[in-house]
Amino acid sequence: MENLYIYIKNTANLSEKGWSALKKVLNIRHFKKGEYLLKSGEVSNSLFYIETGYCRAYYDYGDQMINTNFYFENEFATNIRSMKLGIGSEYFIQADEDIEAVVFDKDKLYDLFSRSVEVDTMGRKLMEGILGRQEEQAYIFKLHTARERYDYMCKIQPKILERIPLIHIASYLGISLDTLRNIHNAEK
Questions:
Q1: What is the number of domains present in the chain?
Q2: Where is the Cyclic nucleotide-binding domain (predicted)?
Q3: What is the Cα–Cα distance from 80 to 88, expressed in whole angstroms?
Q4: In a domain, 71, yes or no
Q5: Which of 12, 40, 139, 146 can pair with 125 through a Cys bridge, CB separation 3.0 to 4.6 Å?
Q6: What residues have CB less than 8 Å from 175, skipping those under 6 apart?
């Protein structure tokens, strides 16, 4: 949990007292490769801070998997909309490597928010960061070229090409595998 502590200190400047209170509502959970953190149709009741490994979010669209995000070490994975509204998730989040995650249980976390203004403020800052990244990604993916999307991906997740199969990256970028190979080979 040391990485999470550093992340929170850098993001929200949580005091030792706040950290101590927060740690009491957190759990460590291991997911094997292929295991789901969240399935389509399930209500998201947890926020996952990825300590080791990575997972991906994807839609099952008929006979096609459409990747929408990858979550690596020191990133949060969840379906915020599902968690906030209490509705079933539209997509899956699946471990693509063995994962160790710190699990923030929604009910325990919200209870702590009601008892600690400091932890509530920290939660809001973390959510603002998550939502800010999602908005930036949505903007890039709606209005920019395939090359610009590729460059953005490499900038925010530099190890993505080492760890993710190109077929998943192509789906994520919304381009064909051949187009991705052409862009990728032009980099070399």
A1: 1
A2: 10-53
A3: 11
A4: yes
A5: 12
A6: 146, 149, 183
Query: What is the predicted pLDDT for the residue at 186?
Result: 83
User: Does residue 43 form part of some domain?
Assistant: yes
Q: Which of 23, 34, 29 is nearest to 52 (CA)?
A: 29
Q: How far apart are CA 77 and CA 170, in angstroms?
A: 21
DSSP string, 6-47: HHHHHHH---HHHHHHHHTTEEEEEE-TT-EEE-TTSBP-EE
Say what the pLDDT of residue 49 is: 97
Tokens standing for 40?
């389509």
Q: Is residue 185 part of a domain?
A: no
| List of E strands, the chain | 26-31, 36-38, 46-52, 55-61, 64-71, 76-77, 92-95, 99-105
Give the tokens for residue 42: 């399930």
Residues of the chain short of pLDDT 50, as ranges, are: none
- In a domain, residue 106? The reply is yes
Tell me which DSSP letter residue 51 carries. Answer: E
- Give 3-state DSSP helix, strand, coil % of the chain, rounded to 5: 50, 25, 25
Q: Is-contact 91 39, C-beta < 8 A?
A: no
145 contact partners, CB below 8 Å, separation of at least 6:
none
DSSP state of 153: H
Structural domain that includes position 50: 2-143
Distance CA 39, CA 163 (A): 23
Q: What is the pTM of this model?
A: 0.90
